[in-house]
């Protein structure tokens, strides 16, 4: 009888504990974490002042005409160049507008034997050039494509040498003005630094070059330039 009472009490106790045990073994809700928010790509804005350096290669195409009438032939004066630029850009939506000044040292040199005077060698050397141009471009966020146009200036020295001996017969120099057209691509590397490549074509007006004791030549000149550029962008407002 005692054993029966113990058994009955055990069954009652197990029956009372069953709901609690069932709750413990019930399917628990799965804790699913929300996926991380995607990180937005940084937005590049091209507005601001900038300064930079550039270097590359150039070729001047020079044609000489004695007294402006008699052709003496043409030659290319080629070589390297290094310089700097400073400018300002405004970005409105994806359009970018700007103005830039550039000054370069150059070492473009070339020559040809005169077709009118075969005893003479004609030589042109360009030792510097400058550009002042407006820009218009389109920004694909960190990539800027642009075109430019404006004024150009070159500093030139002209030589007439003896073909037989190589000695200098006459020498003259001038600074001439013309126009410039160009295009380039620039890539933002950091919020402040950008790098690019640019092509420019300089259209220089023909000019009369007087050689003391050797007459006057009218020299026509065009210049092709390819430069790599590195720019540092300053605050949109100087002094901030």
UniProtKB/TrEMBL annotation:
Subcellular location field: Cell outer membrane
InterPro entries linked to this entry: Beta-barrel_OMP, OMP-like, OMP/PagP_B-barrel
Keywords: Cell outer membrane, Membrane, Signal
Domain Outer membrane protein beta-barrel: 44-202
Signal peptide limits: 1-22
The organism's place on the tree of life at top rank: Bacteria
Coarse class of the protein's main subcellular location: membrane
Keyword flag Magnesium: no
Family: Belongs to the Omp25/RopB family.
Protein name: Outer membrane beta-barrel protein
Organism of derivation: Bradyrhizobium septentrionale
């Amino acid at each position: 009888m005692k054993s029966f009472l113990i058994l009955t009490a055990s069954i009652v106790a197990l029956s009372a504990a069953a709901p609690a045990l069932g709750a413990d073994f019930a399917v628990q809700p799965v804790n699913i974490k929300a996926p991380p928010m995607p990180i937005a790509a940084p937005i590049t804005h091209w507005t601001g002042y900038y300064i930079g350096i550039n270097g590359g290669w150039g070729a001047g195409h020079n044609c000489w005409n004695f007294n402006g009438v008699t052709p003496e032939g043409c030659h290319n004066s080629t070589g390297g160049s290094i310089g700097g630029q400073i400018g300002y850009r405004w970005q409105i939506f994806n359009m970018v507008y700007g103005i830039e000044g550039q000054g370069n040292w150059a070492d473009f040199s070339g020559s040809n034997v005169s077709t009118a005077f075969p005893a003479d060698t004609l030589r042109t050397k360009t030792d510097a050039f400058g550009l002042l141009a407006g820009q218009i471009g389109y920004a694909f966020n960190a990539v800027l494509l642009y075109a430019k146009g404006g004024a150009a200036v070159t500093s030139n020295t002209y030589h007439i040498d003896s073909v037989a001996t190589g000695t200098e017969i006459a020498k003259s120099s001038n600074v001439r003005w013309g126009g410039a057209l160009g295009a380039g691509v620039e890539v933002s590397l950091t919020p402040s630094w950008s790098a690019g490549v640019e092509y420019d074509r300089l259209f220089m007006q023909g000019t009369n070059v007087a050689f003391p004791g050797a007459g006057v030549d009218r020299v026509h000149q065009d210049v092709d330039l390819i430069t790599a550029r590195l720019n540092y962008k300053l605050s949109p407002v100087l002094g901030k």
